[in-house]
Amino acid sequence: MKIALQLAKKGCGFTSPNPMVGAVIVKEGRIIGQGWHEKYGEAHAERNALAACTENPKGATMYVTLEPCCHYGKQPPCINAIMEAGIERVVIGSGDPNPLVSGKGIQILKKQGILVTEHILQEDCERLNEVFFHYIQTKRPFVVMKYAMTMDGKISTKTGASKWVTGETARRHVAQQRHRYAAIMAGIGTILTDDPQLTCRIEGGKNPIRIICDTTLRIPLSANVVSTAKQIPTIIATCCRDAERCALYEKKGCHVLLVEERNGHVDLEQLMYLLGEKQIDSILLEGGGTLNWAALSSGIVQKVQAYIAPKLFGGQAAKTPIEGEGICYPTAAFRLKNSCVLPLGEDFLIESEVEQSVYGNH
C-alpha cells in the first residue's frame, strides 16, 4: 500500500477533479503490475496496473488506495476489469465518498467471491485525497490560504516591499502548490501592488486557473493576468454589471464571473458555489490581508499554509497576513488543528487545518 500511495502522488496536479489513486498487483509475493491515475479523463489506476502486468494476474492480490469505481464516467467501471482479470483479493486504503460509489464497489466485489480487505493505511490514503473528499461531498473547492511572513508577522516592509520574504527553497515549494491545486485566487490589491503572473514556474508543471476578486472591476487591462488570459485561463469575479466594461476583459480572454456583493466585497460563499459548478475542486488563496480576512470570515478556508522566514521587519504600517475587522476576544479566535512543521532551507512551513466549528462565531 505504501508503494501504491507513492504511485498515486505521481498524478498530483493532473487528475482534478478526480482523486489521485495508485494500484499495485502482487502474485505469490512478487509485484507483477503497477499503475496510477495519470490524468483526468484517462484510464484509472486499476486498469493501468492490470495493463502493466508482466504475467497473468489471475489469482493475484490488488492493493489500491481508493475503493474501485463501479459506475460509468469518462472511463468504464474498474470493478469490471478486476473481476475479468481474475483478481482473487483486493486490499483497499480508503472508501470512496462519491455517492455513485460509496461502498457499492466493495459490495459487488464481495458478491463475486473476491476477498476484500479495507482500511489499510486509511489515514494516509484519506489525507492524500483531502481535496477530492471535500469537493465530492460539498461541491465546493477545497481552499488553502497561503502566505509568507517574517517572525514578527509581517508580509511586507513599511514601504510595501515584499520580494522576497522567504528564500528560494520555500518559493519552490509554493510553485509546487500552484501545480497541485486547480486554481489560484488573489485580490485586486495584490494585482495593483505586485502585478503578478500567478503561474506555476515548474518545468512540466501545470499552471493553475487564475481567479481575481475585483469587486468594482478596476483591474488594469495591461495587467499580466489580463494580457496572458488567452494562454492561461483567468476568471475575474466581480460585482460590476457594466456590460461594456466587462466586454473589454472578455475580449482579452478573461472570463468575467458576476457575483453578488456582500459587505462591500465579492460574496465569497456564492463564488465558491459558482466555481464548484465549473469543477474547480481546489484553490490556493494567495491574497492580501483584506481578502484573507474575508475568506476566513466567510468560512471557506479549509487549510492554512504559513511560510515563516527568520527575519524581522518591524513597523506599525507594515502589512500583516490577515487584516479586516479582526476579532474582539481571544476566545473567538479562528482555531487551527493538526499542525505540522516542514523545514524549507532557512525558512519553515507551518501547515494547519481550520476547525470548521468556529465559523459563525465572529
UniProtKB/TrEMBL annotation:
Give the catalytic activity. 5-amino-6-(5-phospho-D-ribitylamino)uracil + NADP(+) = 5-amino-6-(5-phospho-D-ribosylamino)uracil + NADPH + H(+); 2,5-diamino-6-hydroxy-4-(5-phosphoribosylamino)-pyrimidine + H2O + H(+) = 5-amino-6-(5-phospho-D-ribosylamino)uracil + NH4(+)
Instruction: From the UniProt record, list the coiled-coil ranges.
Output: none
Q: Which InterPro entries match?
A: APOBEC/CMP_deaminase_Zn-bd (IPR016192), CMP_dCMP_dom (IPR002125), Cytidine_deaminase-like (IPR016193), DHFR-like_dom_sf (IPR024072), Eubact_RibD (IPR004794), RibD_C (IPR011549), RibDG_C (IPR002734), Riboflavin_Biosynth_HTPR (IPR050765)
Q: Which organism is it from?
A: Blautia hansenii DSM 20583
Keywords assigned? Hydrolase, Metal-binding, Multifunctional enzyme, NADP, Oxidoreductase, Riboflavin biosynthesis, Zinc
- UniProt GO molecular function: 5-amino-6-(5-phosphoribosylamino)uracil reductase activity; diaminohydroxyphosphoribosylaminopyrimidine deaminase activity; NADP binding; zinc ion binding
In the Enzyme Commission scheme, what number(s) does this protein have?
3.5.4.26, 1.1.1.193
List, alphabetically, the Pfam families matched: dCMP_cyt_deam_1, RibD_C
Which PROSITE patterns does the protein's record reference? CYT_DCMP_DEAMINASES_1, CYT_DCMP_DEAMINASES_2
Q: Does the record's keyword annotation contain Zinc? A: yes
Does Membrane count among this protein's keywords?
no
Query: Which protein is depicted?
Result: Riboflavin biosynthesis protein RibD
Q: How is the cofactor bound?
A: Binds 1 zinc ion.
Q: Where is the active site?
A: 46 (proton donor)
Cofactor(s) essential for the protein: Zn(2+)
Q: Which gene encodes it?
A: ribD
Binding residue positions for NADP(+) = 148, 164, 190, 194, 215, 288-294
Residues that bind substrate, according to the entry? 162, 178, 198, 201, 286
Q: Name one GO biological process term.
A: riboflavin biosynthetic process
